[in-house]
Write a structure and sequence with these properties.
By secondary structure, the chain is α/β, with parallel strands linked by helices. Helices cover 34% and strands 21% of the residues. The strands form two sheets. An eight-stranded mixed β-sheet has the order 3-2-1-4-5-6-10-8, sandwiched between helices. A two-stranded parallel ribbon has the order 7-9. Helix 3 packs parallel to helix 5. The two termini are 28 Å apart.
Length: 210
């Protein structure tokens, strides 16, 4: 299977790229900065480009079986306008190139999962600290939801640098989260890869924590 990863040089994206290659996938990694991926592998292709470069995006998407976004803004106070526009470009090109499967890394607190967080955590985390990033995720999710794609929104709790253990909880039903609800990026990456061969959460949002 051929997959394209956007945000492949980020913390989760690098883990996802490594795990995908180890599992035998052919990976196209789309990055903004040359040299941001040091790994060399016969099944790895790195494309350097911006999210507004539609020709580069088409090169990355054409021929893929699925695309994955681990893109994330670097600010808690400024909207990631480039990423929001980039998701719009990616979705449009995926539809044109008939690449149907899109997995989008979002966050608990986006969409209806905002109400899975108990007070006062919801107010402190979602309504204040992460208000801007969650608004961006909501906009991106809405664009993807309105597309013709077979999408999955992966909404993990707080991301950590812990190991891949496979010990995690996930679902799409309404819940009330308790405690920290954190999860390692390595476990998130493994869960995302599993969605490529599993239809349980197609056109669904899935919460995820350890």
């Amino acid at each position: 299977m051929k997959i394209t990863i956007f945000g492949a040089s980020g913390k989760t994206g690098l883990l996802l790229t490594d795990q995908a290659l180890a599992a035998g996938y052919e990976v196209t990694a789309y990055v903004r900065t040359p040299g941001s991926i040091k790994q060399e592998h016969p099944k790895l292709k790195v494309i350097v480009g911006n999210l507004n470069d539609k020709l580069k995006l088409k090169e990355a998407i054409s021929g893929a079986d699925a695309c994955i976004s681990t893109l994330g803004g670097g600010s808690l106070t400024k909207h990631a306008v480039e990423i929001t526009a980039g998701i719009d470009n990616i979705v449009g090109i995926m539809e044109q190139e008939v690449v149907p499967r899109f997995i989008y890394l979002s966050s608990i607190g986006a969409g209806e999962s905002l109400y899975f967080m108990p007070q006062p955590v919801r107010f402190l985390i979602a309504n204040i600290m992460l208000r801007v990033p969650l608004a961006d995720h909501n906009n991106n999710e809405q664009r993807i939801r309105n597309s013709k794609l077979r999408w999955t929104f992966v909404r993990p709790g707080g991301l950590t640098n812990g190991p891949k253990t496979g010990d995690l909880k996930h679902g799409s039903e309404k819940i009330i989260l308790k405690g920290n609800a954190g999860i390692s990026r390595a476990n998130v990456a493994a869960f995302i890869l599993h969605q490529l061969s599993d239809n349980e959460y197609v056109n669904k949002s899935v919460w995820l924590y350890e």
